[in-house]
Amino acid sequence: MGVADASAQPAKSLAELQPKLKINNLVTVTDDKGVVFDGVVTAFTADRLEIRGLEQPTTFFGKMFNSNWNKKSRTIVFTDASLRRIKTPDPTWDGMFIGIGIGALMGVAVCSGRNRDETCPLPILGLAALGGYLGNEFDGTIDATIYRSTPAAHVSLTPLFTRHGAGFGAVIRWSSSLSRVAVRQ
After folding, report:
1. pLDDT exceeding 70 applies to what percent of the chain?
2. Sign of the dihedral through C-alpha 130, 140, 64, 52
């Protein structure tokens, strides 16, 4: 793994995150229970992260109608043990410009099939505006993960009984991955 690859990897502890995160940065934090918070970093040390923000709405209608409009932001404190993931928002201006370019090209393609009358600039401008809007919205959904906790392994044991003998089965989970081990005696 090269130097460029190592810097692109998410930090695994708050101490590793020190050079990447500063006070007043916007962040989206997922805690160890899966609850997601949006906020601004107000304090940050090698063993503690403090943000001022709100919990993200979890329901479809809560997200659609912004159920946090009447709630006051609060200070939330996290440690390495209570964190799962930290993301920072990606700037959306580049997605907007790419969308404008694609939309304008689509408008030119629409006009090339016509006789190029005086209404030809309307599809170009309309599709460029639509492309810019869609590119901005699409790029807004992409965030950079700067911290990901090391998952703790969870082991489940199950007794197994067959005609040929007995033993146990083990299921080992690391967050989203799954490994199965069967041992027979």
Report:
1. 76
2. negative
Parallel/antiparallel/unpaired status of strands 83-89 and 49-55: unpaired
Instruction: Report yes or no on 48 lying in a domain.
Output: yes
Statement to judge: residues 7 and 84 lie in one domain: yes
Same domain membership, residue 107 and residue 159:
no
Over the stretch 47-61, which tens digit does the pLDDT of each residue have? 899 999 888 766 666
Instruction: Centre a 10 Å sphere on the Cβ of residue 30 and count the other Cβ atoms it contains.
Output: 20
**Edge-to-edge strand ranges of the sheet holding 83-89:** 74-78, 49-55, 36-44, 26-31, 83-89, 143-148
Residue 133 tokens, joined? 């809007």
Q: Indicate whether 75 and 9 sit together in one domain.
A: yes
Q: Considering the entire predicted model, what is its pTM?
A: 0.57
Coil, helix or strand at residue 20: coil
Domain of 168? 153-184
Q: pLDDT, tens digit, for every residue of 95-110?
A: 889 999 999 998 888 8
* pLDDT value for 102: 93
Greatest Cα pair distance, the chain, in angstroms, is 85
Q: Are residues 27 and 61 in the same domain?
A: yes
Into how many domains does the chain fold? 3
> How far apart are alpha carbons 131 and 102 in whole angstroms?
6
